[in-house]
Amino acid sequence: MTDSKKLDLLLEKVTGIEKDVSELKKDMVEVKADIVELKKDVSELKKDVSELKKDVTVLKEEVRVMKGEIIHLHRYSDLILDEVERVHSILDMHKADKRVHTA
């Protein structure tokens, strides 16, 4: 192989390497842009998770309050039922008293 052909072969390889390096540089620019975009997405996700944690905390407190209200309502319903039963028994006694209902 002559020196000229060797030089041409080396030149071809260097040109190919330059093209590869140029493509790699373009790819690196795209990768960097993707990384920046991913960082933004991660930041937004962190904010969303933080907001969700706050919402969960609020919901837990609301559930706690509602449980307390349900307990109170249950107590009140028991009191109302007791009163209804008491009045019902009074009415039954009154209805059974023949001295009151003489017509």
What does the secondary structure layout of this molecule look like, with pairings?
Blueprint: H1 3-96
What does this structure look like?
The structure is a single chain. This protein is mainly α and 103 residues long. Helix content is 91%, strand content 0%. It contains 1 helix and no strands. The chain has one helix at residues 3-96. The protein is rod-shaped, with a radius of gyration of 43 Å. The N and C termini lie far apart (140 Å).
* Global mean pLDDT: 93
Quaternary state reads: single chain
Query: How many strands in all?
Result: 0
Which regions contain 5 or more consecutive residues with pLDDT less than 50? none
**What is the H/E string?**
H
Strand content: under 5%
Q: What overall geometry do the principal axes of the alpha carbons give?
A: rod-shaped
Q: What is the number of helical segments per DSSP (H or I, 4+ residues)?
A: 1
Helical coverage, percent range: over 70%
Question: From the alpha-carbon coordinates, what is the Rg to the nearest angstrom?
Answer: 43 Å
Distance between the termini: 140 Å
Report the biggest beta sheet as strand number plus sense, adding barrel if it closes: none
Structural class: mainly alpha
Summarize the structure.
The protein has one helix and no strands. By secondary structure, the chain is mostly helical.
Features:
103 residues; rod-shaped; 1 helix; mainly alpha
